[in-house]
Design goal:
alpha/beta, 9 helices, 246 residues, Rossmann fold, single chain, four-stranded antiparallel beta sheet, 2 domains, six-stranded mixed beta sheet, globular
Length: 246
Amino acid sequence: MTALVVQGLSKSYGGVQALRGVSFSVSSGELVAMIGPNGAGKTTCFNLLNGQLAPDAGAIELDGQSLAGRAPRDTWRLGVGRTFQITATFGSMTVRENVQMALLSSQQRLSSPVAAFSGLAFAAADALLSRVAMLEQAARPCAVLAYGDLKRVELAIALANRPKLLLMDEPTAGMAPQERAELITLAASLARSEGIAVLFTEHDMDVVFGHADRVIVLYAGEVIASGAPAEIRGNARVQEVYLGPA
């Protein structure tokens, strides 16, 4: 079932056209990679999808509900989760507390004093940490974690609102090769078992072609190709502007 539908999405910054008429879809349980050179418009597209920017034109729908122009907190509540290229956690708080905060936010219960929430959403936080293989480190401060472990914590945080759509911005950046494979395999497994539509950007082509169900290629703000990994790898235009010779 199609979860995300994007039609004619456009955005400019002054005289710079960052996106022009971008259209694509992502189905529930599908892992779709969005690739392209720096400046192609990938980050702008993500920022439009989760409400950090408003589009100049076009439509964004998630399960039939419009997301275009909504604030990030509203897209979050409608089922959009996101992880970032640079991890964003509270370093002085424990792994569990970071996930608890996300859970309480999704339940609109953050009015509780921080000092008193240690027992709130405890079981749910541990269940999420178990899913990303971080339960054994639940009591450790995020500030002392290895970078790959922080990425797993961020994934648990993104899953706290039971997203229909998960946006992953360069999820394996800064990770060792084995950690990259493990994280993207985990994301793919969660997407397929729970019916989450996953859209991710990535510069590691081994990750893209080894794990994505489909690949969307952006260049100069436009979609120049979309299809199965093997089809994209052999596309002459994609080779010319991004991948290089096969």
